[in-house]
Amino acid sequence: ILNQAVSGRLYSCNSVEQKIYVELNNTVPCVRLLNATHQIGCQSSISGDTGVIHVLESESDLEWPLSKGPNPPYMVLLESSLFTRSIMMKMKNESNRVAGVAVVVPNTSPPEFSPHTTCPNENTGVYSDNYGPNLAHCNTTVWNPLGNGLSYEEFDFPVFSLKEDNETEFIKQCYLDHNRAVNGSDPQYPLCAMQLFSHMHAVTNTPTCMRRNDINFSINPGTQTMVCDPLGDYNVWGSIRPYNDTVFGHKENESVVIAAARLDSRAFFWEVSTGAEGSISGFVTLLAAAQALREVTHKAPPTRNILFAFFQGETFDYIGSSRMVYDMENGKFVIDLDNVHSILEIGQVALHSGTNLFLHSDPVSRRNNTVNDEVKNLVNNLQSSTTGLSFLLVEPNVSQPLPPSSLQRFLRAQPIPGIVLADHESAFNNRYYESFYDNAANLNLTYPSDFSPEEQLEFVTETAKSLTDVATVVARALYKQAEGDKSLVNTIKADPKIVRLDTLASIKKVLGYLGLHCFVFFCLLEPSAPEYYVGVAMSSTPTRLVQYLLANLTGAATNLTQSQCQKPDELPNESRQMYSYLWVQGVVPPNSTQRDSFCVRASVRLTKAVSPAFELGEYASKDYSTWTESRWKFIKARIFLVASRDLEMLTLGAGVAVLFTSLLVTYFISTKADVLFSSTREPASAAY
Question: pTM here?
Fold first, then answer.
């Protein structure tokens, strides 16, 4: 050890702590979220929670950590197949013997898993005791029957996810070497233990944590200690014809068709939400449809404007859509609700089995003859747009409510004709709704095993082909709904390259600007795929990606220099009030060292996707989302060998004995110092 210490001192910093602990780097925690009434999620104690590792092999094996094991508390390591509501609730009820849980997330998916509720956003949609009470709370249709509700439970111990990699194998080997009982005998010390740190600052609910945000606990003047933050980001929107973004409110003689999709997703663990079917399938389809409309709308502009809206935070009680509706109602958006002619929302569309996609509408608002007639017209425009394609669009056979959708928030404010396009007639086809398994494998996005990366770039998967067809239908229907030139409808076709990969030079340039090399479904196959959890950091990676892609797909490249792109108002024919100007650095072309940069002019904007509850200070609101995320100091996980309690007490006792002995010796020496340390001197010489 001495040699190692010397070597460490000479060549690297090798501390005692590093010799004791093995840090785990590939972990993701479950964190605490709060709303108007309660808190959900997980947390550790302020000093972290420590327990002896027990690898759970079956549900019956729970007896060891919950009652039989002699060395509580236990840190339970379990495979994802055992990450069920039954097991988690049993451990929650015996939390005095469970220090924490570590879930191994495998590279393959289980048959089904959804930690969300069976009725998503049931309290903030349009259906209530006052509006379609027989349709409220999923009384007629349970949209997510596989939901086990784990994401909305509160656990008093930390829960972390581990990847199926070398770190996890090391933990399991440590367990086998030290903790596994042999021949019925108890394991002998030292035992392998794990310590998890994920202490959350916020408690109780959103009103409590927001009130504490206003109290300055810091001893440093001018510094405020925050304990939670509202969930939020930005909505991305763009229109065929630009609007002056300084002139808000109603536009006379203006009629707008809104095409909408959601951007976000979530999972049980913080920031591991991929949302392949749940969100990406919808907004990628809408992006492709927007690109398909660019040429025809320039050639023959439709009578009505088309506004593409990508909403953030929809998973958490419709944050983005409720904010846009609020802004429209209060004269803070470029149009108001009276300008909205109709809405077409793209939901989950990648898992349609057979030949049908489904057109969902609201049966309550359709009791109004005017709304009903316009819904029928939108249905007809959609159904007649499938010419030459391999599927049909049909309405559900039974009267049922809208599935969870942004359209519900618009209907809460005003009876607006609208359709939600989805791949399910009733319950979701998505077996992994709002879980980390809603990924590329869920959509069967695979490439031939012998393909090189370059060949994969050129390969169009069956899923991409299917979504391209859906985008074509959406684009045609929007053009019809906006009263475009009917003779040009069949010329509208989506480009599979938009849905497929970043083979288009324009998309490559956008991704190069952002420092990313993947997007859409191929991105889900990459380790660097962006996360779609809305979070609290404004302008997240998905938001910026969609902003730049929508601008690139619907806007126009200009000859402006970088300085002109940053200050376009100084030029006579440019206006930042009408357009956004985005400088795209692009990628480095072959045989070149300079990036192929250019300036894009587009009518694409960002508007806040933060719940109106925080704008109004109504933290206990029942009308708007009140979700916040707790702050924390740090997240950490590590393992180490722990000695027996007897040995620890013996060591402590020996240390205390040495301490008191040293104090007694010091006291004795101090009191006898004049004797112990006196020096004998020669007597002074007599003077005569």
Answer: 0.89
Task: Judge whether 582 lies within some domain.
Answer: yes
Specify the number of domains making up the chain: 3
Same domain, residue pair 244 and 166: no
Average pLDDT over residues 104-120: 93
**Which class for 448: exposed (0-12), middle (13-18), buried (19 or more C-beta within 10 A)?**
exposed
CA distances from 331 to 186, 232, 325, 335, 580 (A): 70, 21, 10, 8, 21
If one compares 618 and 585, the residue with the highest pLDDT of the two is 618
State whether 240 and 337 are in the same domain.
yes
Distance CA 609, CA 602 (A): 21
**Chain segment 473-496, per-residue pLDDT in tens:** 999 999 999 999 999 999 999 988
CATH code assigned at 59: 3.50.30
Where are any strands of DSSP class E within 563-603? 580-584, 598-602
Sequence-ordered strand ranges (E) for 299-451:
305-311, 340-346, 356-360, 392-394, 418-422
> What is d(CA 346, CA 282) in angstroms, rounded to the nearest whole number?
5
Q: Does a structural domain hold residue 128?
A: no
Q: What is the CATH number of the domain that holds 410?
A: 3.40.630
In this structure, the number of other CB atoms found within 10 A of the CB of residue 95 comes to: 13
Are 55 and 177 within 8 A, CB to CB? no
Q: Which residue has the tokens 């392949």?
A: 276
> Distance between CA 232 and CA 537 in Å, rounded?
7
Pull the structure tokens for residue 455.
């060949």
